[in-house]
Amino acid sequence: MTRSRSIGLVLLLLLAAVPLAGPGNYLLHLMVMALLWSYVYTSWSIMGRLGLVSFGHGAFLGIGAYGVVMLWNHWALSPWLGMPIAVLLSLAVAWVIGLPCFRFKIVGHYFALVTLALSEVARLIIVGLRDHTGGSLGLTPKSDLAAGATMSLKAMQFADKAVWFYIAMAAWLLALLVWRAVDRSMSRLALEAISEEEDAAASIGIDVTRTKLRVTLLSAAMTCIGGVLIAQYQLYINPETVSGISVSLQMVFGAIAGGLFVMLGPTFGAVFLLVLSESLRVLIGNKVLGVDITIYGLLLVLFIIYMPKGILGTVQARLVGPGR
Amino acid sequence: MDQIFDIFFLEAVLNGLLLGGLLALLSLGLNLIFGVIDVVWICYAELIMVGMYTIWWLHTQQGVPLPLAFGGGIALLAVLGAALHQFVIRPVLAAEPINQLLVTGGVLFLLQALATVAFGVEFRNLGVRIPGVVVGEMSLSGARLVAFGMAMVAIATTYLFLNRTYMGTAIRAISQDRAVMPLMGVDASRVYLLTSAIGGALAGLAACLLVLQYDVHPAIGLSFGPLTFLICVLGGLGNLIGGFVAAFVFAQFISVGGFFLQLEWGYVIAFVFFIATMFWKPEGLLSKRAGR
Questions:
Q1: According to a count of CB atoms within 10 Å of the terminal CB, is the N or C end of chain B lower?
Q2: Which residues of chain B are within 8 Å of residue A256 when distances are taken between CB atoms?
Q3: Which residues of A touch B119 (CB under 8 A)?
């Protein structure tokens, strides 16, 4: 136990030292993206692994991204203040959708499809408010970088990718800590009972609705912050990349490909998908569009059929042995 | 002024009615599959996209006459539907339901990407125009009228097939009791395969009607796919009549909502109505059970 912990610490320190080694902008960019999406997938999985498969997390990502950028562009409100506002809005939306869903026991397919509607509503509202959001063309936060400056703390704009590396890494570590905290708390045992046998869980005194709602609110708030970070890092957002069905499905599949039930599973999924798409892009180039997604889709189908626990989950099960 | 407004409004209602027929056909195949096999094909709209490309390719690139191209599209999708069941759904039939949803999500990406590889991202047009119909001061799209009529015929045929034929009875029996029917000597896997082929053929028919009205591109499925699922859920997944009613309700929201505001807002209103209805009647519009 202590040995694996010290190995983990060494690996973390090595990861933290990467920007110091001067890996170049391209590699650093890939690592920032991997960390940001790892954070988002992990946030999704906090509820997803408990049987609450949400196809609506694009809505929370969109609220975060559009929330801060619009508050900044229209009212010059710093993203540091915009972020809590966006999180509050996400919590409100998650509550409005979650409470009736859990109270009326909308589960499985129905839950997935109701939340799918949510992510489409978010996308359509962003497109519909095109006078304020820029519609499908997307939105760019107004630059607050003075000539020659590389960062503006107030506007959460940093030209140096290394800064973003540490921000993304901090967010990712935080998500893992949240994962473990949920794991260790009573609510996880409760939720596992719930996801397997809802009525039985209720009969031993677990407040099913409230426990599910808590996890949902937590996951929604974290995903919303992910939207903020992605918007501020890329300095460009559009409705397709931060809301709607595509990005919501991407979260679900990334997490599942990696393995939902292992703490580092979603992270592994994010890194795997990124490495896959980048290497395919380099190998095949942009000459033939769609080849990378073809392979990605094929792999997803194969994974779900042959490795329902995801890559990391399957590896872990093999290592631990057939006893478990 | 008032009168013009009324005629435009009536036109929106009529267009909504025509759209409703098309949406009813779109949801029919998906609903049938859910009702019988208890699986949601998230990639249903992408199957339709494949059908649209097939018809476009046969007609404009190979010079196949349109009716034959339509037949080709329908036949291909029937085969694809059966293949989807055999190679993708069957292996996960015993797994958790959500895995079945997700595996077809993988197929969604796969079909979209394959279409991009084969045809690129350009919008393709069939180049066939059906003249519109002018009634008084209103003009109605000819393609939509044809689509509406065909959709009604297809729905009626499916209904008769399920209720009047031996195979249809077997399909309905399976959907009512999955566990007992195999004991009665019904070969469930054959029924599933046949249902999947019918579902695919219905997607093919939808493709014929859509390709007359819209340009085809690889992402077109995403524009009407979510709508199709929501209609099925609104009607009560697997409830064919519920889905039929829900399609017309949805279409009116989109058409009339889009008439007063912009098109996106028509969709937003419809989707919000959907979410609200789920809380009021979680098992669909026609269910007797109100929310618990």
A1: N
A2: 102
A3: none
Q: Residue B262's pLDDT is what?
A: 67
Distance CA B8, CA B259 (A): 8
Residue B288 domain flag: no
Q: How many angstroms away from the CA of B229 is the closest CA of chain A?
A: 7
Please judge whether B237 and A118 are an interchain contact, meaning their C-beta atoms are less than 8 angstroms apart: no
DSSP state of A157: E
Give the Cα separation of A132 and A130 in Å (integer): 5
Q: What is the mean pLDDT of residues A28-41?
A: 93
Residue carrying the six token digits 């798409």: A277
Q: Which domain holds residue B209?
A: 12-280
The two structure tokens encoding residue A180: 């473990």
- In 3D space, the residue among B65, B64, B66, B60 whose CA is nearest the CA of residue B125 turns out to be B60
Lowest mean pLDDT among A43-47, A109-113, B198-202: A109-113
Total tally of structural domains belonging to chain B: 1
Is the pLDDT score of A322 beyond 60?
no
| A324, pLDDT greater than 50 | no
Residue B285 lies in a domain: no
Residues pairing with B216 in the sheet: B124
Q: Please judge whether A253 and B40 are an interchain contact, meaning their C-beta atoms are less than 8 angstroms apart.
A: no
Phi first, then psi: give them for residue A265, nearest 5 degrees.
Answer: -55, -55
pLDDT on residue B145: 84
| Alpha carbon distance A220, A57 (integer Å) | 7
The DSSP code for B133 is E
- Domain membership of residue B1 (yes or no) is no
The helix (run of H) or strand (run of E) holding residue A253 is: helix A244-258
Determine the 3-state secondary structure of B263 from DSSP: helix
Rounded percentage of chain A residues whose pLDDT exceeds 70: 90
Q: Mean pLDDT across the stretch B72-96? A: 89
Across the range A260-274, mean pLDDT stands at 87
pLDDT tier for residue B10 given thresholds of 50, 70 and 90: confident
Phi first, then psi: give them for residue B40, nearest 5 degrees: -100, 120
- Is any Cβ of chain A less than 8 angstroms from the Cβ of B275? yes
* String of DSSP letters for A220-252: HHHHHHHHHHHHHHHS-B-HHHHSHHHHHHHHH
Whether B264 is covered by a domain: the verdict is yes
- Phi, psi of A235, rounded to the nearest 5 degrees: 55, 25
Judge: B271–A120 Cβ closer than 8 Å, yes or no. Answer: yes
Q: Tokens 């009407």 appear where?
A: B224
Could B116 and A256 be called an inter-chain contact, meaning their C-beta atoms sit closer than 8 Å? no
Average pLDDT over residues B2-29: 76
pLDDT at B292 over 50: no
Nearest to B107 among A245, A293, A297 (CB): A297
Q: Residue ranges of the domains in chain A? A: 23-242
